[in-house]
Design a protein that fits this description.
The complex is a heterodimer. By secondary structure, chain A is of the alpha/beta class. Chain A contains six helices and twelve strands. In chain A, the strands form two sheets. Chain A has a six-stranded mixed sheet. In chain A, strands 5, 6, 7, 8, 9 and 10 form a six-stranded mixed sheet that branches. Chain B is of the alpha/beta class. The model of chain B has no long low-confidence stretch (mean pLDDT about 90). Classes of the chains: A alpha/beta, B alpha/beta.
Chain lengths: ~250, ~475
């Protein structure tokens, strides 16, 4: 029997757009795959020891809350987060959590806010928000040999750019993605997965959820091979109904 | 004689007539036209009314309707807008209808529900005698933006108003109550008395709660009592900001049913010379409606209406228009309950499981502009609470434009997937839903706003549902 420890970082502050759904998806799918999970909430002032966890999740917050965590994440937990990333720990970072992994956030009026710098990426604030359904294709997550189409919802004014050594999570088919310019969405570095997609991201994209669970299991159990197959009728229906509407294809 | 004023009113009135002849109940266009002709129109005609305004995230419509009931009980000559017409243009249309061609008022009082995002704009033109602010919860972030922007917009709107406006605020909402600080206006608070047993917990809020951090100093709030969401006896140990004392309080929940709540409540000076105790059966279920009732009662008493007329309104009030609207079909009942955001949805789920009856329900989720195009909020709704009494869960249907997403949400709450069905066709949904509801039972339909309009249209044709406050 395998088990996984999931850490929800700043759940009381980075929780704006139904991000809790990602935790539920990891928990439920693990349960359906007969894997035990334990979710631990770690927030401001709490000590953070990454060796206790197999998957670490960071969601998105509103500006007010993101300001509150700024110093805690940089000064208290930053070193540990960076070490965990280099040590191949599995991370999922959405929206604000994604931006936070980068080097800085430059507001539209030129103020530069220092971020964690764990990943070589940066964000520039825009005046217009990019809001709407998004469909992107990822060749990192595959169904057999085929790239997988991922659907979500984006709502961000920051435009994120990827530096050397950071791969995008996918190519935008419909929507804006990282910055609305280069056609990329999200970022992948080692076992860190970042995306602007909430909605929530994982429940409707079970292959991505299983991919993250598998990565974590491989890290923890050398004998782990692969997850079994689950009935994804509802998830598939939800994903294809969005794709049909957005891409106007049958 | 202001020529543009007359032309403005005439144009809008003509538009109202034409739209009526075309059987299009448009409430936006006439107001827009009136503004185009003369931007000063609303200010000029509204100043002759005694205006009551209601704004906030949740409970605007219900609170407005209860205040309306109080006005009716006092035979007040009033006008009021429908919740679908709560933006600047819709509000303008209502006033145009209520004046003569020269702009003289044909009624005394105007009871106006205002969208919280439009409030700042609306108060450029209106001088209300009283403003009720219900609460602030996260709602349709794609439309309203972040919660604090909404709060700040309402604050700017209030700052425009003179000291003679009375503010009626929710004492238990740290954001709403903050509007009463540093103001020369008369402020009246309503809330849940801290020792009232509402089944909530003490201590800090749940991790997914709004406004957990002090609006002044960003420290985490503590609570003497929590009612739901971030509502309750909040206080900041760092800067001392805390729940203000309330002038009207619910002091006890005697009985909470799935269609009513009986409460003890008290009103204190300046709402009455001495404290007065009451026991009232509110004709609506759920703690959120206790708040709506308190908001309306505070407003009624503040405006000088008699206590009896207020308690009568709370007891007899029927909301309709998708807010706890009942339709009898043979020996079964269909109940329509609008859902808009996590807090409201949670409240509905918690009173639906109060009864010992089996829960048969359909969730109709649309993502049109008026619903919010982002449905990620479904993941902030605590469907997990349905697992507390699995034997009570009957058939659950997922429908609406995002019915499939709704089914996924229910699945991940841990409910048995055999009980979840996706039916997108509303006729078929009604048929199956009623079929599988036991005799004497209730089929609950929980739609988002535009889904409510659609299903209500079908129900109206099928069962002769009456039109509410047209």
């Amino acid at each position: 029997m395998y088990d996984l420890n999931i850490c929800h970082l700043y759940p009381d502050l980075l929780n704006t757009y139904g991000d809790r759904g990602n935790i539920l998806a990891l928990q439920k799918r693990a349960q359906w795959h007969s894997i035990d999970t334990l979710v631990t909430n770690v927030t401001i002032g709490d000590s953070f020891d990454s060796s206790l966890y197999d998957i670490i999740f960071l969601g998105g917050g509103q500006d007010y809350e993101q300001e509150i965590i700024q110093s805690d994440v940089l000064n208290q937990k930053g070193t540990e987060i960076k070490a965990a990333i280099e040590g191949m720990k599995v991370f999922l970072c959405i929206c604000g959590g994604y931006q936070l992994m980068g080097k800085y956030y430059k507001t539209w009026d030129g103020k530069e806010i220092e971020f964690l710098g764990a990943l070589d990426l940066w964000t520039v604030g825009g005046k217009e928000r990019m809001i709407g359904n998004i469909v992107f294709e990822s060749d990192i997550i595959k169904a057999g040999d085929n790239p997988v189409r991922i659907v979500g919802f984006e709502n961000h004014s920051g435009r994120t750019y990827l530096g050397q050594g950071i791969k995008p999570l996918g190519r935008v088919i419909s929507g804006n993605g990282n910055n609305g310019e280069d056609g990329f969405e999200g970022a992948v570095y080692k076992n860190v997965y970042c995306s602007y997609s909430h909605g929530s991201l994982l429940p409707k994209n079970p292959l991505l959820t299983d991919h993250l669970l598998s990565l974590a299991l491989k890290q923890k159990y050398p004998d782990f091979e692969a997850l079994g197959v689950l009935d994804d009728t509802f998830e598939d229906a939800a994903r294809s109904s969005v794709m049909q509407r957005i891409l106007k294809t049958p | 004689m202001n020529f543009r004023k007359v032309v403005s009113i005439f144009t809008a009135k003509l538009a109202i007539k034409v739209l009526r002849i075309l059987k299009r109940g448009g409430t936006t266009l006439p107001g827009k036209l009136a503004f185009k002709v003369w931007p000063g129109i609303l200010k000029s005609i509204a100043c002759n009314f005694e205006i009551i305004m209601v704004t906030g995230t949740n409970g605007k419509t219900t609170t407005t309707r209860i205040i309306e009931e109080i006005l009716k009980n006092n035979s007040v000559d009033y006008i009021t807008n429908k919740s679908g017409a709560n933006l600047l243009s819709g509000i303008t249309t209502i006033f145009i209808q209520a004046v003569t061609l020269t702009g003289s008022p044909r009624h005394k009082v105007a009871l106006i529900e205002s969208d919280e995002a439009a409030f700042n704009q609306v108060t450029k033109h209106l001088r209300p005698k009283a403003v009720v602010v219900t609460n602030f919860f996260r709602d349709q972030l794609d439309r309203y933006g972040e919660l604090y922007s909404t709060l700040n917009a309402v604050k700017s709107g209030l700052d425009r108003l003179s000291g003679s406006t009375a503010l009626i605020l929710n004492a238990d909402d740290s954001m709403c109550a903050s509007l009463g600080r540093e103001t020369e206006k008369q402020v009246l608070y309503y809330g849940m008395a801290p020792d009232t047993d509402t089944g909530g917990k003490s201590g800090a809020g749940d991790i997914n709660t709004d406004a957990m951090f002090c609006i002044n100093c960003k420290s985490k709030y503590e609570y003497t009592n929590r009612v739901y969401g971030h509502l309750g006896g909040f206080y900041c140990t760092n800067c001392g900001y805390g729940r203000p004392a309330a002038n009207l309080e619910c002091t006890g929940i005697r009985e909470a049913g799935s269609s009513f709540t009986t409460i003890d409540w008290v009103n204190k000076p300046p709402l009455s010379a001495d404290s007065q105790q009451h026991v009232t059966r509110i004709n609506l279920p759920g703690l959120y409606n206790v708040y709506n009732a308190m908001a309306a009662a505070t407003c009624g008493l503040a405006l000088g209406y008699g206590t009896q007329s207020v308690t009568d309104a709370l007891q007899s009030f029927e909301c309709g228009f998708g807010r706890m609207e009942s339709i009898t079909v043979g020996d079964k009942t269909i109940k329509l309950i609008l859902v808009k955001n996590p807090t409201g949805f949670n409240q509905v789920l918690s009173f639906l499981t109060l009864d010992n009856q089996q829960l048969n329900a359909a969730f109709l989720i649309n993502d049109n502009l008026a619903d919010g195009t982002d449905i990620s909020w479904l993941w902030d709704v605590d469907f997990e609470q349905l697992n507390d009494s699995p034997h009570k869960i009957g058939n659950l249907f997922a429908s609406g434009i995002r019915g499939e997403d709704m089914a996924v949400r229910l699945k991940y709450s841990g409910l048995d997937t055999n009980k979840i069905r996706i039916i997108k066709d509303y006729q078929l949904l009604l048929e199956r839903g009623l079929e599988q509801t036991p005799a004497g039972g209730c089929f609950h339909i929980l739609p988002t706003y535009t889904a409510m309009l659609d299903i209500r249209g079908i129900l109206k044709k099928k069962y002769n549902l009456k039109e509410f406050w047209k």
